[in-house]
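1st attempt posting a full record on here, be nice pls
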Amino acid sequence: MKNPFIPKGKAKLVIIDRRVSRDIISNLKKLDLDVIETIECKEVDKSIAYHPDIVIHPLDEKKLLIAPNVFEYYLEHLKKYDFNLIKGKSVLTSDYPGDISYNIGRMGRHTIHNSKYTDEVAREYFIENNIEMIDVKQGYGKCSLADFGDGLGITSDKIIHERLTKLGYKVLLIQPGFIDLEHQNYGFIGGCIGNLDGETIVVTGRLDRHPDRDKIEAFLADNGKKLMFLSDENILDVGTIMIL
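the predicted structure (as tokens):
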């Protein structure tokens, strides 16, 4: 099954944290993408309150699962696009794990999540479509894994790396940290990137401060991927550059 975070053909739009710099917004528009800025999910911690991957999970290319907390906002802003918007069952709350129900990592026919807290609608969809759920303790499965299609990914989580590698995926393990996230000690690699297509990866900032910069760039280049930096700032976790 094709990863819904990787557009098929020309991407139409991007959903992104409205707090990002105007440089990032401008550069996304230059890629001929409609930009939809997120609304605050007031029930979760302020550090992730505008992160799209906290409140939205693309089940497939046409179906977007959205937290009830913000459903009406996205229903209004996405109505002109050809999506089936589905309201999730899990109402997000401020205390972990009450904020992780939709932050589900995807790779091939597998999901990566603390499945005890996966939203019921998502769980039913995965079962019905023979998508295997990999249960891990890390609740922020989407943030913790950058997936680039073709069985390629990057994570700083050793358990996620171990589980995916055993399944035959090619996943680079990097050091945790060195990624900015406001009000937190650091962010995660999956929250910094978006897939413009099957080849081009857009990144919120530059990798210069990351000790594994050379490893990351070599891993992607060796596997036919190219990076596009949206700003000259340090890499920033914005809850995924959600390109659809």
